[in-house]
């Protein structure tokens, strides 16, 4: 076998070993049921963060849609809670990509537009970077949703 083939094979094995999917925790039926129930009670950033920690491995399908809706409701209806989100992100940086991932095409276009407007016109002092990321993500998601609808 060539040295190059060995290196590629070793690299592929390493990637497979290190990939999140290789270590993904399986979502049991009981956990999925609990996560599905929990989605109805995600009325704060703390609860959304707790759901991520407890049921992140179940974050797909209707559970993911419910979490996305909870994230949108926090941002659209309770924009004044953004400092709480920022503080939680400071404690655990994994929360930010989780929130951004949930700004997706399952959300209402009007909510995505409102997030862009709020991030532009109502960003609180010290949160400019977070607001910019929220705006960018909402804008890209809205564009993606429009392209999918064509």
The total count of strands amounts to 0
H/E element string? Answer: HHHHHHHH
Bulk shape: globular
Distance between the termini: 49 Å
**The number of domains:** 1
What's the Cα radius of gyration?
18 Å
Mean pLDDT figure: 87
Largest sheet: none
Given helix and strand content, the structural type is mainly alpha
- The helical percent reads over 70%
Specify the number of helices.
Answer: 8
Please report which band the strand proportion falls in: under 5%, 5-15%, 15-25%, 25-35%, 35-45% or over 45%.
Answer: under 5%
User: Poorly predicted ranges (pLDDT <50, ≥5 residues)?
Assistant: 1-23
Structure description:
This is Secreted protein. It comes from Massilia violaceinigra. Keywords: Signal. Residues 1-24 form the signal peptide. By secondary structure, the chain is mainly alpha-helical. The protein has one domain (27-148). Helix content is 70%, strand content 0%. Helix 7 packs antiparallel against helix 8 (128-148). The chain starts with a helix and ends with a helix. Mean pLDDT is 87; it is low at 1-23.
Helices and strands, with pairings:
Elements lengths: L2 H16 L10 H10 L6 H11 L5 H17 L4 H10 L3 H7 L7 H13 L6 H21 L2
In short:
Helix content is 70%, strand content 0%.
Supply the key terms.
globular, signal, 70% helix, 150 residues, 8 helices, Secreted protein, disordered N terminus
